[in-house]
Write a structure and sequence with these properties.
The protein is an alpha/beta fold. It is built from 14 helices and 12 strands.
C-alpha cells in the first residue's frame, strides 16, 4: 500500500477508506466550526520562499540537537492518543518507526500501550506527554514510570482544562473500543472512555483532568522530576515569558491540532510572537498543520527549532502499520532536504528569516510605497 503513496496527505484519504467512521473522525476532526483546523494548513500556504542561488548544496545535513540529543532531522513525532484504534501495533509500531528514522517519539498519556511497553521496543529517544489529573499521586507515579523507562523529557499539555467541543465525537458518541484500554492507567480505577450520550472522552476528561492547574502546579511538577519539561500549548508572548520564568526547558507552540479553542491562530502564525518573546533563552518548537517538507522549512525560517507531526503519523499507521509511519517520516525528510537544497541551505543553522516572506511582510512593503 505504502509503495503507491507519494506524499503524506495521500495517507489521510486511504485511512478514511480503511478506518471505522468513529475512529477516523476522532483523529481527523477539530473543534466546533473547524476554522482553526483549516487555518493550520492554509496559513502555511500563504507563506512564500525567498530562495538563494549559486550556493554549494552538494552536501545537505538536516540533523539537529534537541535537549542534548542529536536527531536525524528537525521533524519529530507528536503525541496522539489511542493509536491501537488505528492499527493493532499502535504506539509500538510508531516507536519502532521513529527510532528507525533517528528521531524523537512523544508518547501520549492516553496511549493504548504503556510507557514500559514502548520502552521494550528497543533504543530510541522518547518524550512523555503529560496531562495533570486531579489525583496527584497518579501523576507522580506516571512521571516516575516514564523516568524509569528511559524517557528523556516531559511534554506538559497546558491547553486542556476541559476538552474542546468536537462535534464529530458528539455525533458518533465516541468511545474507546472495548478491547482497548488507556494502558498507563490500567488498574487505577480512574473510569473508562465509555459510550455516553455525548463524547465519552469529554466525559472522562471532565471527571479526571484538573481544571485548577496553574503555574504553581508546574513548580510542583518540577519538584518531583529531574527530567526537562517542555510546555505544550503556548500561543502568546505573555505565556511564553511566564513559561521561561517558571524554568521550562522549551516551548511547543500548539493549538492541540485545532481540537480545543476554535478561532485561535494557526500555529505558524503564532510562532513569531512566541519566538520573539523567548529571545533565544529556550528552544521553541511547533506542531499543527505540517504536511510537507516545505512546511518544515517555513517553520524553521520563522524561528522554530523543530516541528512535531501528529495526524500524518496516525494516518500512515492506519494504512500500513510501522511501514506506513516509516514512509511518512521518510517522505517528510526527503522533501525537507530537497527544500533546503533549493533554498540554498546546507545545514539547519543556515535557515533564517530572510528565506521566507509572510503576508505581514508584504503589507509592510506595500505601506512604504
Amino acid at each position: 500500500m505504502s509503495a503507491e503513496v507519494v506524499n503524506v496527505s495521500e495517507y489521510e484519504q486511504l485511512a478514511k477508506e480503511k478506518l471505522p467512521k468513529m475512529v477516523y473522525d476522532y483523529y481527523a476532526s477539530g473543534a466546533e466550526d473547524q476554522f482553526t483546523l483549516k487555518e493550520n494548513r492554509s496559513a502555511f500556504e500563504r507563506i512564500r520562499f525567498r530562495p538563494r542561488v549559486l550556493i554549494d548544496v552538494s552536501k545537505v545535513d538536516p540533523s539537529i540537537t534537541v535537549l542534548g540529543s542529536k536527531i536525524s532531522m528537525p521533524i519529530m513525532v507528536a503525541p496522539t492518543a489511542m493509536q491501537r484504534m488505528a492499527h493493532p501495533d499502535g504506539e509500538l509500531a510508531v516507536a519502532r518507526a521513529a527510532a528507525s528514522a533517528g528521531t524523537i517519539m512523544t508518547l501520549s498519556s492516553w496511549a493504548t500501550s504503556s510507557v514500559e511497553e514502548v520502552a521494550s521496543t528497543g533504543p530510541g529517544i522518547r518524550f512523555f506527554q503529560l496531562y495533570v489529573y486531579k489525583n496527584r499521586n497518579v501523576v507522580a507515579q506516571l512521571v516516575r514510570r516514564a523516568e524509569n523507562a528511559g524517557f528523556k523529557a516531559i511534554a506538559l499539555t497546558v491547553d486542556t482544562p476541559r476538552l474542546g467541543r468536537r462535534e464529530s465525537d458528539i455525533k458518533n458518541r465516541f468511545n474507546l473500543p472495548r478491547h482497548l484500554t488507556l494502558k498507563n492507567f490500567e488498574g487505577l480505577d480512574l473510569g473508562k472512555v465509555d459510550k455516553t450520550d455525548d463524547s465519552g472522552l469529554a466525559s472522562y476528561v471532565a471527571g479526571q483532568i484538573d481544571r485548577s492547574l496553574s503555574w504553581k502546579d508546574v513548580k510542583w511538577l518540577q519538584s518531583i522530576t529531574k527530567l526537562p519539561i517542555l510546555v505544550k500549548g503556548i500561543l502568546t508572548a505573555e505565556d511564553t515569558r511566564l513559561a521561561i520564568n517558571a524554568g521550562m526547558a522549551g516551548i511547543i507552540v500548539s493549538n492541540h491540532g485545532a481540537r480545543q479553542l476554535d478561532y485561535v491562530p494557526a500555529t505558524i502564525l503564532a510562532l513569531e510572537e512566541v519566538v520573539a518573546a523567548a529571545q533565544g533563552r529556550v528552544p521553541v518548537f511547533l506542531d499543527g498543520g505540517i504536511r510537507r517538507g516545505t512546511d518544515v522549512l517555513k517553520a524553521l525560517a520563522l524561528g522554530a527549532s523543530g516541528v512535531f507531526v501528529g495526524r500524518p503519523v496516525v494516518f500512515g499507521l492506519s494504512v500500513d502499520g510501522e511501514a506506513g509511519v516509516r514512509k511518512v517520516l521518510q517522505i517528510l525528510q526527503d522533501e525537507f532536504e530537497l527544500a533546503m537544497s533549493l533554498a540554498g541551505c546546507c545545514t539547519v543553522k543556515d535557515i533564517n528569516r530572510s528565506h521566507v516572506q509572510t503576508e505581514l511582510d508584504t503589507l509592510r512593503v506595500a505601506s512604504k510605497l
